[in-house]
Amino acid sequence: MHYPKARQTLMSLAVASACAAAAVPAMAQDAPVKAAEATDVQSVVVTGLRQSLISSMNLKRNSDGIVDGIVAEDIGKFPDTNLAESLQRISGVSIDRSIGEGSKITVRGVGPDFNLVLLNGRQMPTSNLGDLNGRAFDFANLASEAISQIQVYKTSRAENATGGIGATVNVMTAKPFDRPGMHASIGAKAVYDTSNDNLPSDVQASRSLTPEVSGLYSNTFANNTIGVALTGSYQERNLGYNTAAVSNGWKGPYAGNTGPLIGAGNQVTNAPGATDLYSLPQNLNYNFNGVKRQRTNAQLTLQYKPVDSLVTTLDYTYSENKIQTKRNDISAWFNFGPSASSWTKGSPTSPTSWTEFVSGSDIAMGAADFATKTQNKSLGFNAVWKATNTLRFELDTHHSTAESGADSPFGSSNTLGTASFSRGTTTVDFSKDFPVLSIQGADFVKAGQQVTGSVFTNSYMKGEVDQTQVKGAWKVLEASELKFGGSFNKVENRSAFSNQQRDTWGGATSPADYPSSVWHPNSIGQYFDQINGSANPNLFNQFYTFNFAQVRQIAATASGLPALYMPKSTFDNDARTQEKSKSAFVQFNTDWDTKFPIRTAIGVRYEKTDVISTALVPAATAISWVSQNEFPITFGAPTFTTLGGSYHNVLPSFDSDIELTPTQKLRFSAGETIGRPRYDQIQGGQTLNSLVRTDGGTGSQGNPALKPVKSKNLDLSYEWYYGKQNFFSVGYFKKDLENYAGQSQIDATPFNLHTPVGGALWNEALSAGKCLASDTTCIRNYIFTNHPTAPGVTAPGVNGNVNGTIVGQPSDPVANFRITSFSNQKKASLSGVELNLQHMFGDSGFGVSTNYTYVHSGLRYDNNKVGEQFALVGLSNSSNVVGIYEDKKFTARVAYNWRGEFLSSTFDGSGPNPQYVEAYGQVDISLGYNYNDKLSFQIEGINVGNSIQRVHSRTQNQLESVTQAGPRYMVGARYKF
Question: What is the CATH number of domain 10-246+282-335+362-750+819-976?
């Protein structure tokens, strides 16, 4: 809270400082990590989009430190249907998209794991099967109807919770005492997602038009001493997206005079120089995805004020997000035999065209059908007691959970592979945005489709937070305030999964087992018509889709092994982490009545965290060679291991603002913040990935003793409020970060697993002179022909050279594994500039809000370097332009959001290779009409320009993925009672 400016004498300042110093030891009690008290700002009643922008401006103007936010247009009417898409309108905030919606945020170049999300000042648990061990909050789980405002704290303050290096985001819900009296509304929308129309029928939802309904009721009784608010919403969405990808990453990089490109029979145009780096595609995949989403949100808030000095609040929040996904795909896998290729100039270089000379290889066509469900539940109690005119206390406690798991009998994800073994010479043209696959000799009649391998995954994640916060504020003299408090947190995370994998990719059944009617002919190019290059006449423009459930049942019956075509009911990997944190803070705020009035806040926060991490991991027992380049591990009974760690931090902070004139402010902030490691970085146990290749296997292990990333922050800003509705600001920020967990690989031989690669039978096949080391099919055939009864050899079945197994024997070499682990070894720094302008053109009804953020770090990924690297992910420039028009009847908004290219990962599906998300811009529009004071209508369009998303690796031609979705349109009405 802020008190009116008063003259601050040296004597009064000395007294206040003494009081603050005396209070410090008194607060050195137990209490923990994540307690945030919202900055008190003036109460504003908002009635429209224009007033929403003004209220957001006033939030920024009246806050201590650098705070941005978004305020609802009206009760139950937030500006965007998705909270992340609202947040991207704020300078410095960029979003990651999933299924065409905003899901996670990056702030000032700091990635999603290091931004803390609070709900009404409370730390929220996270649960996301797409990122099984991360800390990033998924905003797609929360509907916007119950949200009154979002506050984004960009500077550190002792009173705020820790965990947000980029920002701490406080999502605030509507409460009955905020607006006394009765308020109620109901709204309905029809959503038309055009992306559902651009899908094969086997994955397409039956309708593209889906409903959304929401309602809100808030009232106060008994002379405004009792309040109740109830909000609820239900939303359906049917959508689709189509992706072309090198889905298993790029093999390499290699120096130009080494690797698979160097060999007899290779025809190379513009060959890489001896020291130039090059990489080869592991595969090329086109996949077509149909998604159904149902989201349910509800909140009940009860408030009671028995006396004027005491306000109590009890609230319960519930959300459920259910997603069903169906996929069909077609892919070609490369084995790096004789080839022809052409290359870009320079280093690193990548192929503009890659051809492999093969015969009778597989044209793989797969399908998936799975579903997931995420539930968030939060029960909280808050009491604010104004003991005297100068002393105020607050107690807040809550228990919150986030839980995600499978919502289908087929598991949380799956793949059912089929193939026609008729692929001849295969080429991929990488010269355009769209990679063009060409295949010679395909014959689906002579080589009918059959089920090959399959994977059924059962994943589970649960986050749980128990948090109690106690705070106080003591008004010292006329213009000073001492804030103090403490908190205790217990955060638990559990992530578990199991795979039921049948590695019979060379053929699990026979083509005769499947009626021809189960395969549905289709073409490829039509689903990528917005991507440059998809109209290439050389495209292999045919494939077959199929119904996953139908073909799965046939395969289960034909194989006689139905249990292998369902997910496991138990978990093979189960990681459980508990963090207990205690914290205490003291913060002294004071106003200085000088020539230029100054407000300062100086504070310190102490935190101590203990970590216990337990993991169940399967014990590996053997390696089997089952197809050309796949060596799956056989696992035995799993075992639990437990590790621990602890750390503590003292985090100072200082905020000040100088009122240069009644309309101009200069701000300065400095402080330290921390961001906790990801759960996969601190989980116990060592996990081996199930597939081994000819060059060895991979795995991972955590380190519970990791310390959090610590950031030393500096912020400067100038703000000019040159009108009731207008402002301009420019800010500079700098962050020096240390204790980043470096991801490095170590060589190990866990479980002393023996591999056939390099064993006696392998070496005999090579010494016979008929096989090259790269021709694994030839080596397998030699062993099956000459040693069909040798130990570990199971002779091939009806499909000849592709479905026998060879198990590593004690005399064979021990397999090497590259184990990924973590340690505090990395440092980084970043800096940037934010520009904001909001201008309303008098009483014309027109206005514009725009911002630009520039972020820079000297720590960039070196594309010409081999091996693991540390670089900041998520670092990108961004900008927004929002134009509005509003009068008594109409409201119109056109918003353009742009995010520059950024590094999203330093590992792809193959190993230490970068993934860059290319620059992306999106246009959204909305139009509202107020029929009268109670009834209004809305039209909205999302991604109306049908933008595509593309990801590449070391060069632009080195495609990782390119995705086409489509625009989404909504028509709705809202009635206020």
Answer: 2.40.170.20
Residues 6+ apart with CB under 8 A from 964: 198, 241, 242, 243, 527, 528, 529, 530, 531, 946, 948
Tokens of 603: 């504070």
Residues in a beta bridge with 727: 838
DSSP code per residue over 683-695: --SEEE-SEEBTT
The model's pTM: 0.84
Give the helix/strand (H/E) hosting 125: none
CA distances 863 to 15, 262, 270, 733, 894, Å, are 59, 22, 20, 27, 38
What span, in angstroms and rounded, lies between the C-alpha atoms of 39 and 721? 20
Cα-based distances in Å from 331 to 77, 420, 721: 45, 11, 57
Residue 121 structure tokens: 């000042």
Q: How far is CA 752 from CA 204, 749, 791, 857, in A?
A: 47, 5, 18, 43
- What is the domain partition of the chain in residue ranges? 10-246+282-335+362-750+819-976, 247-281, 754-813
Is residue 241 within 8 Å of residue 99, measured between CB atoms? Answer: yes
CA distance 46 to 149: 11
Whether the Cβ atoms of residue 99 and residue 92 lie closer than 8 Å to each other: no
DSSP secondary structure string for all residues of 60-105? HHHSSSSEEEEE-SBTTB-SSSBHHHHHTTSTTEEEEEETTEEEEE
7 pLDDT exceeds 70?
Answer: no
Residue 358 · residue 426 · CB < 8 Å: yes
Q: pLDDT tens across 158-170, in order?
A: 998 898 999 999 9
Query: Do 884 and 876 contact (CB within 8 A), yes or no?
Result: no
**Cβ neighbours of 204 (radius 10 Å):** 17
Q: Name the 3-class secondary structure at 895.
A: strand
DSSP β-bridge partners for residue 186: 215, 975
Higher pLDDT, 20 or 433: 433
Counting every residue written for the chain, the total comes to: 977
Q: Cβ(149)–Cβ(425) under 8 Å?
A: no
pLDDT digits (tens, 9 = 90+) for 519-559: 999 999 999 999 999 999 999 999 999 999 999 999 999 99
Do residues 400 and 376 touch, judged by C-beta distance below 8 A? yes
Q: What is d(CA 782, CA 784) in angstroms, rounded to the nearest whole number?
A: 6
Stretch 623-638: mean pLDDT: 88
Residue type, 723: G
Average pLDDT over residues 922-949: 94
Could you report the per-residue pLDDT of 845-891, keeping only the tens digit for each? 999 999 999 999 988 899 999 988 888 888 999 999 999 999 999 99
Half-sphere exposure of 520 (CA within 13 A, CB side): 14
3-state secondary structure of 752: helix
Q: Which residues, at least 6 apart from 878, have a Cβ–Cβ distance to it below 8 Å?
A: 88, 91, 92, 93, 94, 852, 853, 897, 898, 899, 900
Label the pairing between strands 310-333 and 361-386: antiparallel
Determine phi and psi for 381, rounding to 5 degrees: -130, 140
Name the residue with tokens 């590790």: 643
Angle between helix axes 776-786 and 760-767 (nearest 10 degrees) is 100
Average pLDDT over residues 562-567: 94
DSSP label of 208 = S
Position 747 pLDDT exceeds 90: no
The angle subtended at Cα 550 by Cα 547 and Cα 552, nearest 5°, is 100
**Is the pLDDT assigned to residue 22 strictly greater than 70?**
no
Please tell me which residue, 56 or 926, carries the higher pLDDT value.
926
Distance, in Å, from the CA atom of 3 to the CA atom of 481, rounded to the nearest integer, reads: 9
User: 412 and 475 in contact (C-beta within 8 Å)?
Assistant: no
